[in-house]
Design brief:
membrane, 137 residues, transmembrane helix, 5 helices, rod-shaped, DUF1707_SHOCT-like, transmembrane, mainly alpha, single chain, 56% helix
Amino acid sequence: MTTIDAGFLAERYAAERLSDEDREEAVSALRREQAEGRLTEDELDDRLVQARTARTRGDLAPCFADLPESRVAREDVPTPARTSAWLVMALSPFAAVILFFATGFLISGGFAWSWLWFLLIPVAGIVGVALRGGPRQ
């Protein structure tokens, strides 16, 4: 089921075509807004016509432009913290290997202690989970 929110109506997706299910979800969302008192009957009728005839997400956006953003959890929308957490976790094994060999070859007796760099991998995982806002449900 599609959720009509700011992520769905983002400008970068404006040219994507709508499915019948998307249009029906938009109609349902508009009816909920009217039930909560944000739209009059006339406004609802106008927006329902516009929602039912919309072909792209961009055509649908004006129906929701002056309404408050949906109170849906924003789990699906990537944030900079989530993106950087993924990057840190993805690159930590490579960094550990590079540091392992650099320490081992550049410092006398370095291989005796260079294995400690591999502790970066679980630390990066812990940092990644913390940046993402906790474990996924």
